[in-house]
Amino acid sequence: MPKVYVAIIGAGGVGKSFISQLSAYALRSKKHTISTILISRSSKALLSKDYSGLNLTTWESDIVSSGSVKPPSFPDETLKFLTSAPGPVVLVDNTSSEAIAAEYPRFLSSGVHLVTPNKKGFSSSLDLFKAIYTASEAQNGGYVFHEATVGAGLPVLSTLKDLVDTGDEIVKIEGVFSGTMSYLFNSFAPLVPSGAEKPFSACVAEARELGYTEPDPRDDLNGLDVARKLTILARLSGLQVTEPTSFPIQSLIPKPLESAASAEEFLAGLAGFDGEMDKVKTAAEEEGAVVRYVGSLDVGKGEVSVGLRNFDIGSAVAGLKGSDNIISFYTRRYGERAMIVQGAGAGAEVTAMGVLSDLIKVLERL
Ligand code: NHO
């Protein structure tokens, strides 16, 4: 069986789940032998210098005892190591590093394939986004897939690609793109209130305890995570969005708390603003609606927006549960009824599934 070499940068929540799913896939695969040649964290790394492959069952204890093994420097030593492999190489970037994303064009130009859940390369400057695709599409360029940058493992980007490639016209894409925001509003303003709903600040604290939010919940509440996902969808739909901050983003962080010194200080202060969120919730209820945090992309008008909106209680968005995402594609073929993708949109296992399915897509093309 042909051998494919896999290099993994970043082994945190998503990275760990990815390695465990990859290990099981490698045993099942009847078409390729998979050899993992690099697993690196910020300060430690495991390297298979002779390309024979690392042990994916013991990697966690191996990396702890790896002692003095420093990660190869990035990008130069890493690129040299990967391009010297005796077969095709897939780089898996499971970090959220802007510096790593900035080097994607160089790796792709050198024929290294790339799969990643890291949103930075595709949602920061438009120049980088274009450079990534130009490098990939050049002769001998590596393949690039980043399904998990939007909706975790849900087939959002592949669905968009299929719609566009088959000649459909995207009119509008809208939905709930954040697992954290979904959980917050589904518990703060549920479709069927039980009377035991907690204040908004308590819902934020709960979402943090459940591990849905970023370590600092302001990174979710400022709307930038959703704005990055909308930027990716907009660019893949043909809109030239220059930056993820180049369209209106409604932040849910009260102005006086923007400069709070820590996540704890922010959460402690948030309770003082519960009254404001209560007003938003009551205003929606008076219209027979519920409030949700959504993203919307109108391709015809070239407009992108991210923020709070009221939804009729009979709508699919209002009926969402837990931390699920829902993404509706309004297209010429599907019309006003939309094609809808819905399901868990955050969490290590489902995000890793999106990354592994991208790796399998690369293998199918080799
Ligand atoms: P961690 O747990 O912080 O892991 C990052 C790892 O990278 C750490 O081990 C760190 O040491 C390593 N690292 C950082 N810089 C490095 C460097 N220069 N060299 C080597 N190693 C380095 O982060 P996660 O949670 O595992 O996330 C990894 C990536 O997946 C991030 O880019 C994240 O944005 C992306 N991602 C995660 C999720 C998720 O659910 N955790 C999702 C999508 C993408 O669909 C999910 C989502 O959108 C969640 C969102 N917050 C929501 O909807 O609420």
What do you see in this structure?
With 366 residues, the protein is α/β, with parallel strands linked by helices. Helix content is 39%, strand content 19%. Strands 3-2-1-4-5-6 form a 6-stranded mixed β-sheet. Strands 9-8-7-10-11 form a 5-stranded antiparallel β-sheet. Helix 1 (13-28) crosses helix 15 (348-365) and helix 9 (179-188) packs across helix 10 (200-209). It is globular and about 65 Å long. The mean pLDDT is 94. The chain binds nicotinamide-adenine-dinucleotide-5-hydroxy-4-oxonorvaline. Residues 9-15, 40-42, 71, 94-97, 100, 117-119, 148, 152, 178-180, 212, 214, 220, 225, 345-348, 351 line the site of nicotinamide-adenine-dinucleotide-5-hydroxy-4-oxonorvaline. Nicotinamide-adenine-dinucleotide-5-hydroxy-4-oxonorvaline (NHO) is lined by residues 9-15, 40-42, 71, 94-97, 100, 117-119, 148, 152, 178-180, 212, 214, 220, 225, 345-348, 351.
Bound molecules: nicotinamide-adenine-dinucleotide-5-hydroxy-4-oxonorvaline
Low-pLDDT sequence parts: none
Number of helices: 15
Give a count of the beta strands, DSSP E runs of length 2 or more. 11
Radius of gyration over all CA atoms, rounded: 22 Å
